[in-house]
Design brief:
The complex is a heterodimer of chains A (360) and B (124). With 360 residues, chain A is of the alpha+beta class. Chain A has 12 helices and 8 strands. With 124 residues, chain B is α+β, with helices and mostly antiparallel strands. Classes of the chains: A alpha+beta (360), B alpha+beta (124).
């Protein structure tokens, strides 16, 4: 017997959502039959600005697409312009970019882990995650001058160098942060509250993840081993790592992937600090870009693409950004079908939605 | 399960001993480091009013007038990216690591007026 169907609006204002996304939940009793998403609340028209800003100055706007993966957005943009113009970036700049990218990933994942704990009602864990995140942000501010908007990437390299003494201090401090994260991870992996709220919830099969275009931890939590870092941009080809893959496909697996990636990032930073070569940090860029390029980078939330097209003038003709959240919405809709109403906030959070990014 | 409780309680004891992890801002000043980008400062005496800072500003926050000998920055527009400091040929711009006090309303423009140029001495 089928019950009466009701449509419950979820968002755009909801305690669990840091940003506005709207879902129409078609429910039967307490069971979600279907979720219909709609976005469009925070569109800022950032892509259009590329036609009005000098291509070197657009980096600052690219960085502001997202407040969490800010550095990786600027890296994706700069990498695209450099490839169009055939600029060879110094090796040291590649390493510095890698270090800051991994710090970004750590701070994004720790932020997410906090929010996730908060969505489950585990306030203490939330506070502890954010306490550790502060160590990462401090490191960012000490080396770049900005906590969340670093402004240290530019076309042709990076704008700030890190001294040898500072690098040594960083590698010592990252070990402490890593130990703290491992302590917290232990709670995420083994605590009965977390397991109860996440295991078997929001299941997405490996095939669905692949066919619906899931990226990042959402895909890796379903056993799809895609990680754009493995395609070898910046200094990643020289570092030793394997993508973190879990096969569960539920909220617990996606949480595991992120929690393990924080530790992996700490490890990558240590490796990069050990291997970083000396030399220049930037090259002088002359002329204007002519041509087009697809720049792919791995953000904390998944693969991000910056498509750039220039016509030899100082303003680019087109920039198109495809952010990970946008591609993770169809898998989210699939996960929500058949779940309990009370689990919706937790499931929505497991794709780590960043609507500011998705709408640009 | 018992082990988990122990992990969290160890943390509680640590937190009790070390005090709060947060700062009581604004009673205590915000954290800042040597590299922190707080706000842009100018040493107007050295300025030659070339306008390179204004041209390089991605946020169009700086206005320079050679005739009036003024340099003006809109603090609300400025994103403290350091571009002007890097572009300045006379090194008269600098980034201070002190964050400005929060304000309630704008506009917040800082105007610096340079010294009168020394009168040219004509040789007779």
């Amino acid at each position: 017997m089928t019950g009466r169907r009701t449509v419950v609006p979820f968002g755009p204002q909801h305690p669990v959502l840091p940003e506005p996304i709207h879902l129409d939940l078609v429910i039967e009793d307490e069971k979600v039959i279907e979720a219909i998403p709609s976005i469009g609340y925070v569109h800022r028209g950032l892509e259009k600005l590329v036609e009005k800003k000098d291509y070197k100055n657009y980096v600052y706007i690219a960085e502001r697409i997202c407040g969490i993966c800010s550095f990786i957005h600027s890296l994706g943009y700069c990498q695209g312009v450099e490839n169009i113009m055939g600029v060879e970036v110094p090796e040291r700049a590649h390493y510095l970019r890698t270090i800051w990218s991994e710090y970004s990933r750590m701070h994004s994942h720790l932020l997410w882990m906090g929010l996730f704990a908060d969505a489950m009602g585990f306030e203490n864990l939330f506070m502890n995650c954010w306490r550790i995140r502060e160590q990462v942000l401090d490191m960012m501010e000490e080396t770049t001058g900005g906590r969340v908007i670093q402004g240290s990437c530019k076309v042709g390299g990076v704008r700030k160098d890190i001294s040898v003494a500072k690098l040594k201090e960083m590698s010592e401090r990252i070990e402490k942060t890593k130990a703290d994260v491992e302590e917290i991870n232990h709670v995420f992996f083994d605590d009965s509250t977390v397991i109860h709220r996440t295991k078997g919830i929001g299941y997405l099969s490996k095939d669905d993840a692949y066919h619906l275009g899931a990226v990042g931890p959402t895909a890796r939590g379903c056993g799809v081993a895609i990680d754009i870092r493995k395609t070898g941009y910046a200094a990643y080809p020289e570092l030793d790592f394997e993508p973190v893959v879990e096969s569960g496909g539920d909220c617990y697996s996606r949480c595991m992937v992120r929690a393990k990636e924080v530790v992996q990032s700490a490890d990558l930073i240590r490796q990069a600090i050990e291997k970083i070569p000396g030399g220049d940090i930037d090259v002088k860029v002359k002329g204007n870009p002519e041509g087009e390029y697809f720049s792919r980078v791995e953000q904390p939330r998944g693969e991000c693409i910056h498509y750039l097209k220039g016509n030899g003038k100082k303003f680019l003709v087109r920039e198109r950004v495809r952010t990970p959240t946008l591609t993770n919405i169809p898998p989210l809709v699939r996960m929500l079908a058949g779940c309990e109403m009370a689990d919706v906030p937790v499931i929505v959070l497991t794709i780590d939605p960043c609507i500011g990014c998705a709408e640009r | 399960m018992g082990k988990i409780t122990f992990t969290m309680s160890k943390r509680i004891l640590k937190s009790l001993a070390s005090g709060p992890a947060t700062l009581r801002y604004p009673h205590e000043p915000a954290k800042r480091y040597e590299a922190s980008r707080g706000h842009i400062e100018i040493n107007i005496d050295d300025c030659i009013y070339c306008g390179l800072c204004s041209k390089n500003c991605p946020a169009d926050a700086i206005e320079v007038s050679k005739d009036d000998r003024t340099w003006e920055i809109d603090r609300f527009r400025c994103i403290i990216c350091n571009s002007c400091v890097e572009a300045c040929p006379k090194d008269c711009l600098s980034t201070s690591n002190v964050y400005l006090e929060p304000v309630f309303s704008g506009p917040l423009k800082d105007r610096s007026v340079g010294p009168e140029p020394e009168p040219e001495v004509k040789e007779e």
